[in-house]
Structures are given as C-alpha cells and as structure tokens.
C-alpha cells in the first residue's frame, strides 16, 4: 500500500493528499497531508507512519505552526481540525471534555449559552483547543486562572505508534503535553476546567511613561486588596508610537466591580480612568504577521530591567506587551533585524534574567534563515523529567522532530 492509499483509507479519499508548495511547516516542506475525522483515524495514521518510519507534525488551525523551532523534517502534516465538538458536558458542571480541533471562539459561544467560559483569552483569534494546549498559549486571564496546563484536568493523546492513552505511569501527561509543541503525542481531546461568566467587567487604564513606572504601579496593584483579574501593559516602540498604557481588569457583580475599579483608579492616579471596554491592544500580541517575536518571562519585579536591556541592545525602544503582573511579555522586532543584533538582544535579556533570579527569553518566531544563526531557546537544557518522557513516548523522534532541544 502506498502512503497516499494508506492515508486515504484512514481519513477518507477527500481528506488525504500529496502535499503541494503551500503545504509547509514554518518553511519546511511536507510530503503528505492527512485530515482524520476522529481519534481512531488519528491513531490509524500514526500506526501507519510508525511502520514506515515517517515523521509527523500535528496542526489544528495552523495559527502557531511558525512558533518554536521548525521541525528538522516533516513527512506527514496531520491536520486535526475535523476533530470538533464538546464530547462531554453537563450544564453547570465544573469541567467539559472537548475535541482538540474545536475553535476556541466556537467553544466560547457555546459555553456562554450556559453562562460558563473556558478562561483562555489567547491572542490567536482562530486558535483551536489542541493548538493552544500544545503551545501552552495564554492571555490576560492567566493572571487569575493560570495557563492551559493549570486548566487541563485530563487529555487523550495518540502516541507515536498509534495507541490512544489518557495516562502514562509516573507522569502528569495532561501537564506535560501543554507546551510540548506536539513532540510527545497528538492531543485528540482534553477535559478543561470551566468558570462562571462574570456579571460585570471593567478596565482601569492608565498612561505610563517608562518600564520602571509600569513595574512600580503593578507592584502597587498586586500588593493592594483589590485583586484584579488581569494586569497588562503595552509599551509601543518607535517614533510616533501611541502612548504606553497599563490596564487592569476587574470582574464580578456590578457593585463589586464598580467599587474595585474606582478604588484602583484612585490608587494608580496619573489620569487613570475606568472603562467599560478593554483598550484596543488588550489580549493582542505586539507583533504583526511578518515580525520577529520574542517571549520573555521572569520575576515580575525584574521584568522592567529586561525591557531596558532589550532597548539598550536594540539601540531604540522595542514594542513590548504582556502580563506584567506575572512577569510574562512578548516583544516585536522587524524582520530586517540582523542576526548579530538579534543575538545581542537575546544574550542581553538572558544575562539580566539570570542575574535577577531566573527566567527565560525565547525566540518565538522568525524567518528560517535567521533562526539558523541564533540560539532560540538559550542555554537552559530541557528539564530531565520532560526529556525522559520524550524518550519514553517517542524514542525515534518521529513526532515534530527537532522542535524541542536535543534529548539524546
């Protein structure tokens, strides 16, 4: 049986094809594309690719296929976007089991009918649940509710040889697949913790002038009894950029929200205003489609120092936006940046973080030729537990090969 015949048998004749020029993973060409219709189809595809020694990269909506290190090679692009729907949910229940290819915005609309929500307000509008879990992508609500790995209570994963599992002895599989970029297995479904929809929301927005001011105001909010649900900052860069802002979100019943928001505005001072809608930049990444993107994280009290280090290395202000209350932010750089300048910025950020209590600076997205000349992850090795799990689940490195540091 040929590859295309086997994939067509697993997925249906209209859902498998030989890849064309547009079928790539971050510039890496693909041999075939398969779109299974259910978890059994995913498993069947993986059983075949295992016998043939073919590599597999999983995808949902493809919104983050250019995040992380590109795969070293990709024989089959496994598209799980046909795996959609809520598989198990009772109105009012604290959790729901959801197919991995389900778009978050469709899930949001469905849950809203029951006055519930999945508190993941990611910056990728078309993202699917599986893609969000695979990259551990989170938005402003992470300040209160955590990242995806804090919200997932169970997963079903198709392993490299085609078995479907919900657990692996000795490992919290549901946590380790989050942020694994598909290198441990293909997520087919996940059980997620839900939260009630708030009755009211309000944002307190204050103009700021420096990263240091952002840090000081954020510390004041965190130390106060006001308990914001999210604290975000937007520091645009470049000549003629809009003013920088700090914003905090409050949720609850109307009286509670009004009181907390007004108190926060008084605490922040400096022209802080209570708004019924978020600022235009809220929940969005600072980078555009062609920009180079960095992710930085560290102690919240030290994030401002990293921003200054990046500015010094770049020779000018760079756009930074993110969850400053948690010490997580994203940075946008032009795709014309030289490898030398980018390497200098990465080194500067990592040096400051190391000296100030730890953290990281990852090259999240960049043109392939630029990635090959810099260290995307930095000097930190893959945690030993994650490395052991990778070797246990995918010893031949067929799933998204090369997308995490070498574990050999």
Explain this structure to me?
There is one protein chain. The protein has 408 residues and is an alpha+beta fold. It contains 13 helices and 20 strands. It has an 8-stranded antiparallel sheet with strand order 16-13-15-14-18-19-17-20. Strands 1, 2, 3, 4 and 5 form a 5-stranded mixed sheet that branches. It has a 5-stranded antiparallel sheet with strand order 6-7-11-9-10. Helix 1 (3-11) packs antiparallel against helix 2 and helix 10 (303-314) packs antiparallel against helix 11. The longest helix is centred in the last third of the chain and has 17 residues, at 339-355. It is globular.
Short description:
The chain is α+β, with helices and mostly antiparallel strands. 30% of the residues lie in helices and 25% in strands.
Number of strands: 20
The helicity comes to 25-40%
The biggest sheet amounts to: 8 strands, antiparallel
Range of strand content: 25-35%
Whole-Å distance between the termini? 33 Å
Give the helix/strand layout.
Layout: H1 3-11, E1 16-18, E2 24-25, E3 28-34, H2 39-52, E4 56-59, E5 74-79, E6 86-88, E7 95-99, H3 104-112, E8 116-117, H4 129-135, H5 142-145, H6 148-151, E9 152-158, E10 164-165, H7 173-176, E11 186-193, E12 195-196, E13 200-208, H8 211-223, E14 230-235, E15 244-252, H9 254-268, E16 273-275, E17 292-298, H10 303-314, E18 320-323, E19 328-333, H11 339-355, E20 359-365, H12 368-371, H13 384-393
Parallel strand pairs: 3-5, 4-5
Antiparallel strand pairs: 1-3, 2-3, 6-7, 7-11, 8-12, 9-10, 9-11, 13-15, 13-16, 14-15, 14-18, 17-19, 17-20, 18-19
Helix pairs in contact: 1-2, 8-10, 10-11
